[in-house]
Specification:
The chain is of the alpha/beta class. The chain has helices at residues 13-22, 31-44, 55-65, 82-89, 135-145, 196-206, 212-216, 236-247, 249-266, 268-272, 299-311, 327-332, 342-348, 360-373; strands at 48-52, 73-77, 94-98, 120-126, 148-152, 160-161, 164-165, 172-176, 189-193, 285-286, 293-295, 333-335, 349-351. The two termini are 31 Å apart. The structure holds pyridoxal-5'-phosphate. The modification N6-(pyridoxal phosphate)lysine is found at residue 181.
């Protein structure tokens, strides 16, 4: 059986968790959290990083920090995870969905400007599969209109756009360390920013609306309630797990890219003959092997292929149902312009097994099974009716 995902484990997780327990420091913001903050700041080349309890919470924090209020509009793709939208809807925003690009499944940067109104407060760029959105175009349209940019970089740690880390372009970057992501702490995430003022406000929002972070640094002699906030900091046990992962970030990244390359090469014959589409990595994008997907004819063929693979012990899964077609999405948002790509392409997409430690032989078995499904009719007489 080849699972779709296996949570990453590198070897030192338990040792670090034990250290946290022995040190009698298991609540948040101890030395493991601190280590992860410095690692993220260094790796991403950002001024500030804060671990959070999830990427969902990092997105909620950005909505709070941007002061999103009822009636504000936030632009994003419809092809994304629920949390991208929910974080802003919780603050009363209306979501304005924009179509995506067929090649990357990312927001179509050429359609953003037409979606901007006097109420638009933010654009959320989701880097699907760790492949960058066109950040130059997005940042320039945002600056021109004085609108904030939040990067949903949940899938994008270790990925770059023209050499610069994803998550470091916008006002805020939100990362996920859920067990389905390249690096994990079970449940968890991070919020990053280059804005000092936003960072100090973020510390307060993250610590129940108190200035406890400053108190711990000895900058105030007691901590009190100074603003609105919630509890968005993870336990040291989770941060200890994450440290073991981040220490081997390069190894994990290379291993995933290797698997990605095996798939891409093995499935090239089907892509070249137009039987399937495979991911496009635009010029200037360094991705992180977060996902390998193929696109088949339509959702019917996809269902057949899922069954075909399942019968061979291979778990392949589809992905997002576009948010604008969901009941909450219809209630809280609207689609700007026409949905030309989003629905059609999302119904064709199938994700193949991908995780740190997936054996080459297993990747090859997946490839063979996909090739077998698409074998020309002459070789599959039993299927001719
Ligand atoms: C995984 C994911 C999230 C949510 O991350 P959590 O850490 O589980 O809250 C949000 N957005 C995208 C694009 C994701 O892939």
């Amino acid at each position: 059986m080849i699972n779709f995902n296996v949570p990453p484990f590198t070897g030192r997780e338990l040792e670090y968790a034990q250290q946290a327990v022995r040190a009698r420091k298991i609540s948040g913001d101890g030395e493991f959290t601190e280590w992860c903050h410095r690692w993220l700041e260094q790796e991403l080349q950002v001024r500030h990083a804060l671990l959070t309890t999830s990427c969902t919470h990092a997105l909620e924090m950005s909505a709070l920090l941007l002061g999103i209020r009822p009636g504000d509009e936030v632009i994003m793709p419809s092809y994304t995870f629920v949390s991208t939208a929910n974080a802003f809807v919780l603050r009363g925003a209306r979501i304005v969905f924009v179509d995506i690009r067929k090649d990357t499944m990312n927001i179509d940067e050429t359609r953003i400007e037409a979606a901007i109104t006097s109420r638009t407060k933010a654009i959320v760029a989701v880097h699907y599969a760790g492949v960058a959105c066109e950040m130059d175009a997005i940042m320039s349209v945002a600056r021109k209109h004085g609108i904030a940019v939040v990067e949903d970089a949940a899938q994008a740690l270790m990925a770059r756009y023209h050499g610069k880390s994803l998550g470091s372009f916008g006002d805020f970057g939100a990362f996920s360390f859920h067990e389905t992501k390249n690096y994990s702490m079970g449940e968890g995430g991070a919020l990053v920013t280059n804005d000092d003022d936003a960072y100090y406000r973020a510390e307060i929002v993250r610590e129940k609306g108190t200035d406890r972070s400053r108190f711990f640094r000895g900058q105030v002699d007691k901590y009190t309630w100074v603003g609105t906030g919630s509890s968005y900091l993870p336990s040291e046990l989770n941060a200890a797990y994450l440290r073991a992962q981040l220490e081997l970030a390069e190894t994990i990244n290379n291993s995933r890219l290797r698997t990605w390359g095996i798939y891409n090469e093995g499935l090239a014959p089907l892509a070249e003959t137009g039987v399937i589409d495979v991911p496009t990595i635009p010029q200037g994008c360094d991705h992180n092997g977060h996902m390998y997907y193929i696109k088949v004819r339509d959702h019917l063929q996809r269902a057949e292929l899922i069954s075909h693979l399942k019968a061979r012990g291979i778990m392949a899964v589809f992905h997002y149902v576009p948010l604008h077609s969901s009941s909450a999405g219809r209630h809280f948002g609207r689609f700007s312009g026409a949905d030309v790509v989003t629905t059609r392409e999302s119904e064709r997409l199938l994700r193949l097994p991908m995780y740190y430690g997936l054996k080459d032989s297993d990747a090859n078995k997946v490839i063979e099974s996909v090739l077998e499904f698409f074998a020309p009719p002459t070789a599959r007489r039993e299927h001719i009716r």
